[in-house]
Design goal:
Largest sheet: 7 strands, mixed
Helix content: 25-40%
Distance between the termini: 34 Å
Radius of gyration: 18 Å
Number of strands: 9
Low-confidence stretches: none
Number of helices: 11
Order of helices and strands: EEHEHEHEHHHEEHHEHEHH
Shape: globular
Length: 254
């Protein structure tokens, strides 16, 4: 099975991988900007997310293999690969396994290290949505607000809402499998995995995902890497400060 994607523009292949509970469409605005610099941008939905296939199996090796199959299906090589959070972990592993396919790697606000599970409240909130009663996005938002106070996070999560059929809402994500396998999202990059080519790590200045203690492990796995901090941004740095995020990526690519 091949991952679903939205392909924007013509030129050199540029693949973007979304984070946990996200989808490729989260990146559409930035993708259009990148496409104006002669890139063909592939907004890929990872397994159990967006419009891609659902599977009971979920881990980074499988997601890296999914991306390999996607590249083969679309005859892509010498790619620019950008991944955010969970997508960054997939991108890191893919680059260490298939370095011949990757020209440059960009990792947004995630380190190669292990992260403990911290999505419990979000998953509990999404599981609480009763679509036999909830008939609008507003009603879903109100129900979710009992668990998640941050409106921006709720808006991000509710992008997963869709009409299964007329009058029947549902979630595109495979929520039961993602709940059962949430620990996989925090798994570390294998200890001896390395990628020698140019790599950019971007972190938000208000995020705690990449701290000073992460710099050594980043350079150990990615010896030709640089770390750039995006100001006025937390974990969703590409959404919170898209101008600086875009400029940092373009500076790295050229």
């Amino acid at each position: 099975m091949i991952l679903h994607s939205n392909i924007i523009g013509e030129g050199r292949p540029f693949i973007i991988l979304h984070g946990f509970l996200g989808m490729g469409d989260n990146w559409k605005t930035l993708a259009k900007q990148f496409s104006e610099s002669n890139y063909q941008v592939h907004l890929v939905d990872q397994r159990n997310h967006g419009r891609s296939f659902h599977s009971d199996d979920f881990d980074y090796e499988l997601m890296a293999d999914d991306l390999k199959a996607y590249c083969e299906e679309h005859n892509l090589n010498d790619i620019i690969l950008l991944g955010h959070s969970m997508g960054g972990k997939t991108a890191m592993l893919f680059s260490t396994l298939y370095p011949e396919l990757v020209k440059k790697l960009i990792v947004a606000d995630i380190s190669p290290r292990y992260y403990p599970v911290h999505h419990d409240t979000i998953l509990e909130g999404l599981s609480s949505l009763d679509f036999s009663k909830i008939k609008s996005r507003g009603e879903a938002d109100k129900a979710l607000s009992n668990y998640i106070k941050d409106q921006g996070i709720r808006m991000f999560l509710l992008k997963n809402l869709y009409w299964v059929e007329k009058g029947q809402l549902g979630l595109r994500i495979n929520l039961p499998v993602l709940k059962d396998n949430v620990a996989e999202v925090g798994e570390a990059l294998p200890i001896h995995a390395t990628f020698e080519k140019d790599t950019l790590f971007l972190r938000g200045d208000r995020s705690e995902y990449i701290g000073e203690q992460d710099e050594a492990i980043i350079h150990r796995h990615f010896p030709n890497s640089e770390i750039v901090t995006i100001s006025n941004a937390g974990h969703w740095l590409h959404a919170e400060n898209p101008e600086d995020f875009y400029q940092a990526v373009i500076n790295f690519l050229y």
